């Protein structure tokens, strides 16, 4: 009783000692825990946050400091990866053209080792950069379905632009076609009204659907970081037609009043494929479907000889995400950047590279490779936009041409071309979220005809952009420089 009374009488002193004790303990623990299996830049950023304010920084680290899945979910992902490798053997390998550069074979081998999928030949592809036209064309393809339709998008919602797409799904489901739909939990539910309308439409027609990476902090018996997301975008019809790229299934203004008032809208690039590569897309969808529903789809319905092998493109799918041992997309980009001999064109809405990617691009520019980077003139995400800007000085000094896609459009397309040899298109940004925290889908495509199509897209984007000059960049306000650099530091906390 006497001790308790003393504590009550001296509560301010006790509280001070307790706070200081917790402060010291958290700082010491962080020195041991934070650097474990973590990139030096990320570890330093977390340590700085914790040292400045341990009471806030350390709980945030516990919440957001692990990019890995819980053990039970990681074991499931590893099982999926093993299954992908087995099933991918049913897809015939293709040989590169004789005139392909020698380094491209190394990239193919790297992708096969990381993501399991082989290089496939005899594919055909089309590109679509008009936002509403791509949705209309996907709906048109869905209406041809005889057996199955598989749909996966990070963000999905039923609005005036996507209404016909969902009507096409409903029509085929009512006709007895198997329709399966996956959408990222946070990506979709954050657009509440159109998300609810979508779910009601799917349920009304008996369409199977499931949220990906649902936000349940202690799912699978362990804590799971809430911002691990599935960022892929795919549509597969009968295992014969495949769509993939950067576009979400929602109106170009994302149904946000603030975007509508500002006239803000998104610019995308989508690709439509036919040929053996569609089986790889179907397999990747099946892995995500099993991951969320526990239903293993029949291999015979996923991998089948393509009825259309008239194409000339070699294609290889490269999945990535927290369930893989390596950052597959980052390793692929770096391999290609170091291999380039003449030209690199990179289009990325969120360009916040790690040290290895920044070094690869600067090295390429310094050794005489023409390097162009397309980004948006304005940003929709404050932290990422300003972190991205902090790299412009270094890039400009190295001779990189930076193209700013004019406002009020957000250039959301994601693709890369290397020399005249290979293109990569998909859902992956060039930032640490896409490398570490998000499940992504990238597709490497060889073929001069496809490169010509990519060059046309690049030319269109260049005509809608303006080049950032060194003089303009150096004259920006000092306050903006400070904000950019602070956001760059914060972006390292992954």
Automatic annotation (TrEMBL):
Question: Which superkingdom heads the taxonomic lineage of this protein's source?
Answer: Bacteria
Q: Which GO terms describe its biological process?
A: cardiolipin biosynthetic process
Q: How does it sit in the membrane?
A: Multi-pass membrane protein
GO CC annotations, alphabetized: plasma membrane
User: Where does the UniProt entry say this protein principally localizes?
Assistant: membrane
- SMART domains the record matches: PLDc
Q: Start and end of every PLD phosphodiesterase domain?
A: 226-253, 407-434
Give the record's keywords alphabetically. Cell membrane, Lipid biosynthesis, Lipid metabolism, Membrane, Phospholipid biosynthesis, Phospholipid metabolism, Repeat, Transferase, Transmembrane, Transmembrane helix
State what protein this is by name. Cardiolipin synthase
Name the source organism. Brachybacterium paraconglomeratum
Q: Which gene holds the coding sequence for this protein? A: cls
């Amino acid at each position: 009783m006497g001790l308790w009374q003393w504590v009550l009488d001296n509560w301010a002193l006790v509280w001070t000692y307790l706070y200081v004790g917790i402060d010291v303990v958290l700082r010491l623990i962080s020195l041991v825990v934070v650097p474990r299996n973590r990139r030096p830049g990320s570890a330093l950023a977390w340590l700085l946050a914790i040292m400045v304010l341990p009471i806030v920084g350390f709980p945030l680290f516990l919440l957001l400091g692990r990019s890995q899945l819980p053990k039970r979910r990681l074991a499931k992902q590893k099982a999926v990866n093993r299954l992908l490798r087995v099933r991918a053997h049913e897809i015939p390998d293709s040989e590169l053209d004789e005139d392909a550069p020698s380094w491209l074979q190394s990239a193919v081998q790297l992708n096969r080792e990381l993501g399991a999928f082989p290089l496939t030949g005899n594919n055909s592809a089309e590109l679509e950069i008009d936002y509403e036209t791509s949705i209309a064309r996907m709906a048109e393809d869905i209406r041809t379905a005889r057996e199955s339709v598989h749909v996966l998008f990070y963000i999905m919602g039923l609005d005036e632009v996507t209404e016909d797409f969902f009507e096409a799904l409903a029509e085929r489901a009512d006709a007895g076609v198997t329709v399966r739909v996956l959408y990222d939990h946070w990506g979709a539910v954050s657009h509440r009204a159109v998300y609810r309308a979508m779910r009601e439409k799917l349920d009304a027609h008996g369409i199977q659907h499931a949220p990906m990476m649902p936000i349940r902090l202690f799912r699978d018996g362990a804590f799971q970081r809430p911002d691990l997301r599935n960022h892929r975008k795919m549509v597969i019809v009968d295992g014969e037609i495949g769509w993939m790229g950067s576009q979400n299934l929602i109106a170009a203004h994302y149904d946000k009043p603030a975007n509508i008032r500002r006239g803000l809208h998104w610019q995308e690039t989508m690709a439509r494929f036919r040929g053996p590569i569609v089986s790889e897309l179907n397999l990747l969808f099946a892995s995500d479907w099993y991951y969320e529903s526990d239903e293993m789809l029949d291999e015979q319905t996923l991998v089948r000889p393509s009825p259309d092998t008239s194409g000339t493109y070699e294609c290889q799918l490269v999945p990535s995400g927290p369930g893989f041992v390596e950052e597959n997309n980052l390793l692929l980009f770096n391999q290609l950047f170091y291999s380039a001999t003449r030209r690199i064109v990179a289009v990325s809405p969120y360009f916040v590279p790690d040290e290895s990617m920044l070094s690869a691009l600067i090295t390429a520019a310094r050794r005489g490779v023409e390097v162009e980077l397309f980004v948006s003139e304005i940003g929709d995400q404050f932290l990422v936009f300003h972190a991205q800007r902090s790299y412009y000085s270094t890039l400009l000094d190295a001779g990189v041409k930076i193209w700013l896609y004019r406002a009020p459009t957000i250039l959301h397309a994601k693709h890369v071309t290397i020399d005249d040899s290979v293109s990569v298109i998909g859902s992956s940004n060039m930032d640490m979220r896409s490398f570490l925290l998000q499940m992504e889908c990238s597709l490497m495509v060889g073929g001069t005809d496809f490169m010509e199509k990519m060059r046309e897209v690049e030319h269109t984007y260049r005509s809608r952009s303006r080049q950032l000059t060194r003089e303009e960049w150096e004259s920006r306000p000092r306050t903006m420089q400070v904000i950019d650099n602070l956001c760059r530091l914060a972006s390292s906390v992954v």
